[in-house]
Design a protein that fits this description.
This protein has 785 residues and is mainly β. Helices cover 4% and strands 65% of the residues. The longest helix has 10 residues.
Length: 785
C-alpha cells in the first residue's frame, strides 16, 4: 500500500525501496518528517513503491524500516531530487543468520493469506509460467486443468480475470516467459470480495514492472502433434508507456485437431428381461479460435487512474462422429444401429471494462469502480442420421434423421464498487455489486423417420439480477493473523418458454460468512484454519428441459426446478519451512444438484438428468513437499487422500455410495545449466466417484525440456504428455436398474515444440493491477469463460 498526502498543484514523488539484490521490498514502513513533525506515514506496495506529494517545504527527513534490515534515515531536498527516489536497504548484521536462511528460501515466501513465488524475471523455478506452476507447492497441472491444494483455480493476470477459455489460458501460460513475471501469488482463501458461487483457489500472476517510457513486445508459436494431426498456437503481445499513458494489447490463435475413441456399454433390467446396448464410436473434433485484448490506462493525476480494457474471442468447433451400437435382448444379438453425426458450433465473446481507482488519503485508502458489459453469442447445430440394421447388417427401415440447433444470445452487465482502508494493525475491505444477466435462446429440433415428422421450435427468455454487499476485516492481533468476512447476495430470476415450460422464477437472500485464522509459530512453522459457506447455482443450460441427443439411446435433458445448494467447509493447513505442507478439509452439503441416468418408460432409451437429490460429505487430506534436494535437482510432490459418501434417492429409496480415493503427483526438476532445464511429470489417480459414477484408476507421464536463448530474450521448449497413453477415462455405474461402463480415449499423447521471443526497451511498466471484474460468476453459468 502506498501513501499520498494532498496539496494544491503539488509535485508527486515516489520512493522505490529495494533490498540488497535490487528486488522490491513490499510492506516496508515509511515515515516522512518536516522538521520534527511527522508529515506522513505508510507502507510500500507490492512493488516496493511509496508515493507522496510535496508538503510545505522541500526539506524532509525520511525513515524507512523493514524486518531484517538496518533502519534507513536520510535527509532529502526535494528541489534537487527526481520524481523517483531509489533506496537500497542494508541487511542488519544482527539478523544475518536469518537473512541467509531467507536468501535460500527467497523464491517461496509465506505471507499472511497467500504463498508468494518471487520470480523477478528469473528462471529459477522454470522458464515460463506453466513450468513455474508445475514446480509450485500444492499446484497440479494436467494439460489445461490447474488445481491448487485440491481445488480448481481462477487465473488472474495482474489482479484481473483473463476471461479466456481453458485452452486459451493454457496457451497464454505457455508463452508467458519467466522474464515477464514479477511474482505469482497462490491464494487458498480469496475472501468475501469473490462471488459466493466461487468455491476455488486463486492464482494471481503479476507481470514485471519496468519504469519509464518505451515499449516491449513478444512473439510466440507452438507446434502440437497428436496421434494423427499436427496443429498449433501462436501469439503476439505489445505494451507501450508514454508519460501518464499506458497502452497494451495481445492476440492469440489456436488450432487443435484430434481423434477420440469411446465405448459405452449399458445394461438395463426390465421385468420381462434385460437389454444390453454396446456402443462404440470414433470422433474427430477440431477447434479453432482467436483471442485479443486492447487496453489503456491513464493517470488522471497522482491520486486517480482511469482504465479501459476490451477482451474478445472467437471460437469455431466442428465434430464428426461415426458410431455403431449392438443391441442384445436377453443375451441374444437383436439388431444394430449406426450413427453419423456432424456437429458445428460457433462462440464469440466481447467484454468491455471501464475502471477507475482513486486514492483517498495519506494512509493509502482507495475506492475502486469497475463496470463490465459482456456480449456472448454461441450457436450449435447437429445433423444426425441413424440406420437400424438386422444382424446381417441390412437396413430394417428408412434412416431416422435428427436435426438439433441451439442459438444463444447473452448480455451481461455488472458494476462493482470496492473500498479499502488500512489502519495500524488491521484493514477493512468493503464493496457493493450489482449484476444482471439477459439470455435469449432459440431451440429447433426436427425428427424424421421417413414416415412421420416431429418438430419443436421454442424461444426461451431468462433474466437474473444479483445484488451483493460484502465486508472483509483482516489484521494482526497479538496471537494470530485473522480475516473475518461476510457477504450477502440477493438473487432474483425469472424465465419463460413458449413450449417447454410455462415459467420459472424465484427470489432469495443468503448470507455467506467466512473466517480465516493464521499463526506463525516460529520462522519455520505456519498454521491456518479457515471456514466458509458457498452457493452453487445451476447453470442456465441445466434448467432447460431440451433433449440433447448424443446417440440413438442416450440424451441429456435439463430441469427447470433445480435449486441452488450450499456447501460448508472447514480446512486446516500446516506449513513447515515453506517446503512441507499438510492440509485437511471437511465439506458437507444437502440437497445437492446430482447428475444421474434414468430409463424412459417402455423404452431402452436412457436420459441423463439432474435433480436436487441427496447429500454428500467428504474429508480431503493433502501432504506435499517442494524443495531443492541438490543444487541441480528439485522435487515437487503431492499426495491427496479423500473419503466420504454421497446419496441418491430414486423412487423413494435412498442409495448411499461410500468411497475412498487417492492420487499422487511427482514433478522432479533438473537444472542442467543456467539456461537449460528439464522436468518430469508423473500422476496417478485411484478410483474416484463423481456424482454416482465411479471413474477408474489412470496415470500419465510427461516431460519438458526448455532453454532460454538470445541472452534470455527468447525461450524454446519441447514437451510431451501422457507418453504411454494411459490417461484414458473409464467410468462405471450401478444403481437402480442401470449398469454402465464407459471408456474414452482422448488422444492425450501430445508433443509440443514452443518458441517465444521478447524484445523492446527494458524500462516499460506493467499494465495496472485492477480490481476483480463484475461479471465473473454469471459468465461461467451461461457458458462464458
Amino acid at each position: 500500500m502506498h501513501s499520498i498526502s494532498f496539496g494544491q498543484d503539488a509535485k508527486a514523488y515516489r520512493f522505490i525501496i529495494q533490498d540488497e539484490t535490487e528486488s522490491p521490498v513490499p510492506n516496508a514502513t515509511v515515515q516522512v518528517f518536516e522538521g520534527e513533525d511527522l508529515w506522513m506515514a505508510g507502507y510500500t506496495d507490492t512493488l516496493g513503491v511509496f508515493s507522496f506529494e510535496k508538503g510545505k517545504t522541500d526539506q524532509i527527513q525520511v525513515e524507512i524500516s523493514y524486518l531484517g534490515y538496518e533502519i534507513w534515515k536520510s535527509p532529502y531536498d526535494l528541489s534537487k531530487e527526481s520524481n523517483d527516489i531509489k533506496v537500497q536497504l542494508i541487511p542488519d548484521a544482527k539478523w544475518i543468520d536469518l537473512v541467509t536462511v531467507k536468501a535460500d528460501r527467497k523464491i517461496i515466501k509465506q505471507e499472511a493469506d497467500r504463498l508468494v513465488l518471487q520470480i523477478d524475471g528469473k528462471n529459477t523455478l522454470g522458464n515460463n509460467a506453466i513450468e513455474i506452476l508445475e514446480n509450485a507447492p500444492g499446484v497440479l497441472v494436467q494439460e489445461n486443468d490447474i488445481s491448487y491444494l485440491g481445488k480448481g483455480v481462477k487465473i488472474l493476470i495482474d489482479g484481473r480475470p483473463t476471461k479466456l477459455s481453458p485452452t486459451q489460458i493454457g496457451n497464454y501460460l505457455n508463452k508467458k516467459g519467466a522474464y515477464a513475471i514479477k511474482r505469482i501469488e497462490l491464494i487458498a482463501d480469496p475472501g468475501a470480495a469473490q462471488d459466493a458461487s466461487f468455491d476455488g483457489r486463486v492464482i494471481n500472476i503479476i507481470t514485471q514492472r519496468r519504469e519509464g517510457d518505451g515499449y516491449t513486445a513478444g512473439l510466440s508459436t507452438t507446434a502440437i502433434q497428436r496421434s494423427e494431426f499436427l496443429s498449433g498456437t501462436s501469439g503476439v503481445d505489445f505494451h507501450m508507456q508514454y508519460g501518464n499513458l499506458s497502452l497494451f494489447a495481445d492476440a492469440g490463435y489456436y488450432n487443435d485437431r484430434r481423434t477420440e475413441r469411446s465405448i459405452n456399454n449399458r445394461a438395463i433390467d426390465f421385468d420381462s428381461g434385460n437389454t444390453e446396448i454396446n456402443e462404440s464410436s470414433k470422433v474427430r473434433p477440431e477447434g479453432t479460435g482467436y483471442n485479443y485484448t486492447v487496453g489503456v490506462d491513464y493517470d488522471l493525476h497522482p491520486k486517480s487512474i482511469l482504465g479501459f480494457k476490451y477482451v474478445g474471442s472467437q471460437d469455431e468447433a466442428n465434430r464428426s462422429l461415426r458410431g455403431l451400437s449392438n443391441i442384445f435382448n436377453n443375451g441374444q444379438l437383436d439388431s444394430l444401429v449406426s450413427i453419423d453425426d456432424e456437429t458445428t458450433g460457433d462462440y464469440s465473446s466481447n467484454t468491455f471494462n471501464l475502471n477507475n481507482k482513486t486514492i483517498l488519503d495519506s494512509t493509502g485508502a482507495f475506492i475502486n469502480l469497475d463496470i463490465d458489459y459482456d456480449i456472448i453469442d454461441n450457436t450449435s447445430a447437429s445433423d444426425q442420421i441413424f440406420n437400424t440394421l438386422n444382424t446381417s447388417m441390412e437396413p430394417l427401415h428408412a434412416p431416422d434423421k435428427r436435426f438439433q440447433d441451439i442459438g444463444s444470445r447473452n448480455r451481461l452487465f455488472g458494476v462493482k464498487l470496492d473500498y479499502q482502508k488500512k489502519f495500524t494493525t488491521w484493514k477493512i475491505d468493503a464493496g457493493l455489486k450489482y449484476s444482471q444477466s439477459n439470455i435469449d435462446q432459440t431451440l429447433n429440433q426436427l425428427f424424421d423417420n421417413g414416415t412421420n415428422t416431429l418438430s419443436l421450435l421454442d424461444t426461451l427468455n431468462y433474466r437474473e439480477d444479483i445484488y451483493a454487499a460484502y465486508v472483509d476485516i483482516r489484521g494482526k492481533s497479538k496471537f494470530f493473523n485473522y480475516r473475518v468476512s461476510l457477504r450477502s447476495e440477493l438473487t432474483d430470476y425469472e424465465g419463460s418458454a413458449s413450449s417447454l415450460f410455462a415459467s420459472i422464477g424465484d427470489r432469495y437472500l443468503n448470507v455467506f460468512p467466512s473466517v480465516f485464522l493464521a499463526k506463525s509459530l516460529s520462522e519455520k512453522h505456519y498454521v491456518v484454519l479457515a471456514y466458509q459457506k458457498k452457493i452453487r447455482r445451476p447453470r442456465f443450460g441445466q434448467l432447460i428441459p431440451f433433449r440433447r441427443y448424443t446417440s440413438a439411446f442416450f440424451y441429456y435433458v435439463g430441469n427447470p426446478q433445480l435449486q441452488p445448494f450450499f456447501p460448508h467447509s472447514v480446512e486446516a493447513r500446516y506449513f513447515y519451512n515453506d517446503k512441507y505442507f499438510i492440509s485437511a478439509r471437511y465439506e458437507k452439503a444437502n440437497n445437492r444438484i446430482l447428475g444421474f441416468s434414468q430409463v424412459e418408460s417402455n423404452s431402452n432409451v436412457v436420459a441423463g438428468i439432474k435433480q436436487n437429490n441427496g447429500s454428500y460429505e467428504k474429508f480431503v487430506w493433502i501432504a506435499g513437499y517442494n524443495g531443492k534436494i541438490k543444487k541441480w535437482f528439485s522435487l515437487n510432490a503431492n499426495f491427496v487422500y479423500s473419503f466420504g459418501s454421497q446419496s441418491l434417492v430414486s423412487e423413494g429409496v435412498e442409495e448411499v455410495f461410500e468411497y475412498d480415493t487417492y492420487n499422487i503427483s511427482l514433478n522432479p526438476s533438473f537444472k542442467i545449466s543456467k539456461a537449460l532445464r528439464a522436468n518430469l511429470n508423473l500422476y496417478y489417480s485411484s478410483n474416484v466417484y463423481y456424482d454416482v459414477s465411479q471413474t477408474l484408476n489412470y496415470w500419465n507421464l510427461g516431460f519438458r525440456i526448455s532453454q532460454t536463448v538470445l541472452k534470455g530474450a527468447a525461450y524454446i521448449s519441447l514437451s510431451g504428455s501422457d507418453l504411454f497413453l494411459k490417461n484414458i477415462t473409464r467410468r462405471k455405474a450401478d444403481y437402480t436398474n442401470i449398469s454402465s461402463y464407459v471408456e474414452n480415449n482422448w488422444d492425450s499423447r501430445i508433443f509440443r515444440l514452443s518458441f517465444s521471443y521478447n524484445f523492446g526497451q527494458d524500462d516499460v511498466r506493467k499494465q495496472r493491477k485492477r480490481a476483480k471484474t463484475a461479471n465473473n460468476d454469471v459468465r461461467r453459468r451461461v457458458g462464458g469463460n
